[in-house]
Design a protein that fits this description.
Blueprint (H helix, E strand, L loop, with lengths): L24 E5 L5 E6 H10 L3 E6 L6 E5 L1 H18 L5 E6 L5 H16 L3 E7 L8 H15 L3 E10 L2 E8 L3
Parallel strand pairs: 1-4, 5-6
Antiparallel strand pairs: 1-2, 3-4, 6-8, 7-8
């Protein structure tokens, strides 16, 4: 007697359900959570079909693979619901960038400072970069001073996740928003 699952077209590749289970013996748990003991695969499939439910392998890597008798459609629905809930509750933090130069004027710096503070208040991380061009590389200390001042003015809204470091022709620091 072959048991054909009505869920075959919806399965993901890693789901072991009914006929896809290829172990000789499995530990069977019924729909109420009671252990029925170690059975042959065919006997477990027969038990599941008598209950009009599916045999789902929940722990294939155990010494004796564990299979559970349950409604597979309901199980998949619950798993998808959990994944959606986890996705909804997770906050995606994006990395925004603010570019400065060693010759930046006070007003321009204040405009970029306000914009950076808005990004931090929105919960985004900010990468502050000071780009050096040509002969400006001879005066990295000026760029470091500008970056230190910029970070000091943002100190109420952020913590320094990665301190200032030269990467090529750019001095970079990463700021993360403070927890509220």
């Amino acid at each position: 007697m072959a048991i054909i699952s009505k869920y075959n077209n919806q399965q993901t590749n890693d789901d072991l359900v009914n006929e896809k289970i290829r172990f000789k013996e499995v530990l069977v748990i019924d729909q109420n959570g009671d252990q029925l003991g170690v059975m042959s695969r065919n006997q477990a499939l027969h038990t599941a079909s008598n209950a009009n439910l599916d045999l789902v392998c929940v722990a294939p890597k155990a010494a004796t693979p564990v299979c559970r008798i349950m409604d597979y459609g309901k199980y998949r629905f619950e798993q998808q619901k959990k994944q959606k809930e986890m996705k909804k509750n997770s906050k995606v933090v994006s990395l925004k960038e603010t570019q400065l130069s060693p010759t930046i004027d006070v007003h321009d710096k204040n405009v970029k400072l306000k914009r950076t503070i808005k990004m931090l208040e929105a919960g985004d991380k900010v990468k502050v970069a000071v780009r050096f061009r040509g002969r400006q590389l001879a005066h990295i200390d000026i760029g470091q001073k500008i970056l230190e001042d910029f970070v000091a003015e943002c100190a109420d809204y952020c913590i320094v996740e990665k301190p200032a470091k030269m990467e090529g022709r750019t001095l970079i620091a990463i700021l993360a928003p403070k927890k509220k």
